[in-house]
């Protein structure tokens, strides 16, 4: 489906003016969309002035300036487009046509807005924006269409780069599959590693740029597979080379190559928005989405009694109730949950029958009594569906919590490693059966969680988790069998370790996923704010020129992934604690939220995602995080001055700890290092110290919240002095106005930055 050039605020007025891009162009990325925002804004200004009766000299000069600015910006933009066309011959013809159209439209707008020097701009002797009112609209429409076309064509080059990178990776993978010597393997794998790093950066940028959250989630899942499989491919291939006649080693290696090829293919499907043989992607409908659609239809009867048939409504309910059989038929659903789901399913059928009966009567005669009966039937039906949704959510999440807790000790994996090294084939066979049982439990857990995930991205994450358990389980088994057959083999032991780590990592991911699903259900989930704390152009550059930014390779990112995971869990904990505060404007809360958001962006860095692209970005973020922590400590000291409670010494002690930890983090972040190894050590230290600060923050927030609640309950834990926060506000710091906060973090909101720039600057 085609979209308008910009769906963000400030563009709707252009639609009312008749502006629009080529209907055949679909904008799939935020960068293209945001680049168009300033242009649309400027053109909208012109369109809105063409019919205004009052035209002062100041207004005329402003119109002329805007018209000239648009023309100049388009001219420079077109120059860039023409250069791209010359470098990419397959797009040259299309790009050149679009550039010519854009240049012509820009010149037309400049001519029509050349009104400041005219005594009578409304005179028919001069064709202007006021005499040719449709001309400026046509020129604006052509300009938007042609500029959008240039941007979309340029975007194709990015897609081409990703495809080319994928093809390189595939070609090298084929060589790796065929190698027969260690020396040859090491040489080719070194090349493969570099190609995978390039592919990871290209696809990471693309993932962040995608507008569609569903595609973004699928891209993240595919990239996660490739990241984990890179290390698996290394150890599985080495094991196969060391034990060429071992069937289980060959099966293990083949499984890795197959999974990587599938992941690479999915990335290209997402990037090109196409599937093999033109088939559509089929994602099974979840109970949540089915109930949501069903309730929308039922509630729609209030407005229109005739917009759907009773058969349609009955079919929708049947589909939902069929899906509940996934719960009632599952061996892992408790007896209590099963009984409740069956009862609610039966009740839902009865409520719908009653609704249909009243609905049919209301179609024949709209009496007041019948419409009231219909309203009652609608409410009872929706209430029943809400209860059903609550019950399946409880069934899925309680099962997941129990399973994750039970399997978090990894006893089966530990036993497989021990029995494998002992060469005990019989014991290995026994524990592989137990792992298979565990796999079936976890796969069933993922299927049930998908039904209650609440959002499409989380549904996709559940599907990815299910696939991971399905594939990794047999791979662990083949790796364990190989080790049992060759118990003295160091590489076979290392290979089993790698696959076991992947399993453990997926279990940790499931804990976070369960948290997010619960957040959605409880209405606490929102977009995570990520502070763009990168240096502003011209402000910090003097300090940065001497430092060469370093990007971590795949192996290094894998090493810090565990720390990043812990950081992510802590950001969730801090967010949960801050949400418990009644006063969200409280200074302690705002500092805590800011630190959580910055820690989250550092977590994204450990995954090779987000806005922190290089190690220098990370170090700068760590400095600002530490500064924010120091400000929080100052706020805590000010708060403690008002406390008359036994907890005051503890609060002061924790505040002093926070100051000390933030100083250490700042020292680490500012320390000068040279060389890749030293840089990685610094990255590791920064993330570790950030994690420690976040751990302390998780203890501080509930303590402060408790003291405030005691005060509200009248326990007298605070002195009757002016409220500490108001007192600080009166000092004139205004530390948390939006402008001041932006300055504090050394950033501007990316959206505002792009919108307020001229068209050329945004490009």
Automatic annotation (TrEMBL):
It is found in: Cytoplasm. InterPro entries: Alpha-catenin/vinculin-like_sf, Alpha_catenin, CTNNAL1, Vinculin/catenin. GO terms for cellular component: cytoplasm. It comes from the Eukaryota. Residues 1-20 are annotated as: Disordered. GO terms for molecular function: actin filament binding; cadherin binding. Residues 7-18 have a biased composition (Low complexity). The keyword Cytoplasm applies. GO terms for biological process: cell adhesion; Rho protein signal transduction. Keywords: Cytoplasm. Pfam families: Vinculin. The keyword Hydrolase does not apply. Its main location: cytoplasm. Belongs to the vinculin/alpha-catenin family. This is Alpha-catulin. It comes from Haliaeetus albicilla.
């Amino acid at each position: 489906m085609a979209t308008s050039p910009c769906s963000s605020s400030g563009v709707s007025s252009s639609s009312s003016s008749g502006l629009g891009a080529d209907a055949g162009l679909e904008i799939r990325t935020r960068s293209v969309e945001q680049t168009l925002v300033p242009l649309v804004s400027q053109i909208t200004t012109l369109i809105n002035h063409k019919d205004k009766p009052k035209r002062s000299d100041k207004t005329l000069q402003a119109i002329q300036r805007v018209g000239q600015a648009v023309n100049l910006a388009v001219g420079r933009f077109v120059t860039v487009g023409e250069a791209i066309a010359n470098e990419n011959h397959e797009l040259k013809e299309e790009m050149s046509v679009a550039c010519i159209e854009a240049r012509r439209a820009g010149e037309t707008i400049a001519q029509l807005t050349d009104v400041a020097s005219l005594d009578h701009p409304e005179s028919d002797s001069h064709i202007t924006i006021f005499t040719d009112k449709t001309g400026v609209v046509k020129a604006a429409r052509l300009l938007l269409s042609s500029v959008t076309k240039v941007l979309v064509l340029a975007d194709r080059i990015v897609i081409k780069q990703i495809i080319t990178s994928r093809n390189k990776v595939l070609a090298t993978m084929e060589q790796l599959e065929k190698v027969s010597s260690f020396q040859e393997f090491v040489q080719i794998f070194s090349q493969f590693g570099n190609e995978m790093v390039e592919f990871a950066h290209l696809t990471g940028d693309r993932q962040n740029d995608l507008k569609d959250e569903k595609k973004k989630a699928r891209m993240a899942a595919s990239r996660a597979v490739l990241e984990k499989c890179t290390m698996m491919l290394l150890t599985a291939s080495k094991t196969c080379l060391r034990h060429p006649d071992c069937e289980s080693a060959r099966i293990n290696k083949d499984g890795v190559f197959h999974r990587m090829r599938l992941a690479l293919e999915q990335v290209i499907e997402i990037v090109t928005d196409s599937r093999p043989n033109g088939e559509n992607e089929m994602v099974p409908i979840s109970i949540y989405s089915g109930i949501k659609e069903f309730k929308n239809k039922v509630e729609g009867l209030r407005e229109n009694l005739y917009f759907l048939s009773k058969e349609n409504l009955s079919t929708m309910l049947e589909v939902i109730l069929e899906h509940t059989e996934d719960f009632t038929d599952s061996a892992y659903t408790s007896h209590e949950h099963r009984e409740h789901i069956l009862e609610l399913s039966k009740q839902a059928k009865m409520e719908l029958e009653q609704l249909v009966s009243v609905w049919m009567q209301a179609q024949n005669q709209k009496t007041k009594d019948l419409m009231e009966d219909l309203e009652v039937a609608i409410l009872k039906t929706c209430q029943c569906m809400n209860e059903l949704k609550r019950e399946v959510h409880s069934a899925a999440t309680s099962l997941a919590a129990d399973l994750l807790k039970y399997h978090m000790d990894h006893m089966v994996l530990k036993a497989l490693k021990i029995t494998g090294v002992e060469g005990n084939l019989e014991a290995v066979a026994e524990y592989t059966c137990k792992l298979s049982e565990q796999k079936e439990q976890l796969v069933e857990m993922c299927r049930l969680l998908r039904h209650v995930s609440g959002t499409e991205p989380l549904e996709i994450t559940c599907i990815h988790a299910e696939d991971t358990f399905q594939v990794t389980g047999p791979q662990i088994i083949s790796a364990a069998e190989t080790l049992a057959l060759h118990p003295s083999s160091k590489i076979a032991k290392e290979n089993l370790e790698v696959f076991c780590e992947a399993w453990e990592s997926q279990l940790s991911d499931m804990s976070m996923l369960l948290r997010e699903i619960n957040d959605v259900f409880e209405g606490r989930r929102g977009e995570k704010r990520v502070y763009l704390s990168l240096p502003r152009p011209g402000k910090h550059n003097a300090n940065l020129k001497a430092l060469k930014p370093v990007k971590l390779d795949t192996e290094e990112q894998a090493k810090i992934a565990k720390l990043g995971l812990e950081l992510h869990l802590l950001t969730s904990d801090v967010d949960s604690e801050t949400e418990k505060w009644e006063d969200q404007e409280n200074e302690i809360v705002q500092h805590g939220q800011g630190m959580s958001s910055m820690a989250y962006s550092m977590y994204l860095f450990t995954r090779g995602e987000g806005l922190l692209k290089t190690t220098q970005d990370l170090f700068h973020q760590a400095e600002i995080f530490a500064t924010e922590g120091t400000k929080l400590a100052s706020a805590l000291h000010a708060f403690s001055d008002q406390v008359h409670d036994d907890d005051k010494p503890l609060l002061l002690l924790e505040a002093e700890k926070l100051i000390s930890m933030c100083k250490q983090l700042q020292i680490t972040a500012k320390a000068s290092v040279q060389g890749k190894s030293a840089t990685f050590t610094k990255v590791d230290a920064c993330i570790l110290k950030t994690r420690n600060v976040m751990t302390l923050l998780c203890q501080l927030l509930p303590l402060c919240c408790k003291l405030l609640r005691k005060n509200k309950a009248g326990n007298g834990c605070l002195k009757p002095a002016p409220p500490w926060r108001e007192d600080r506000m009166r000092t004139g710091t205004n530390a948390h106005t939006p402008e001041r906060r932006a300055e504090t973090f050394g950033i501007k909101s990316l959206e505002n930055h792009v919108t307020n720039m001229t068209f050329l600057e945004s490009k």
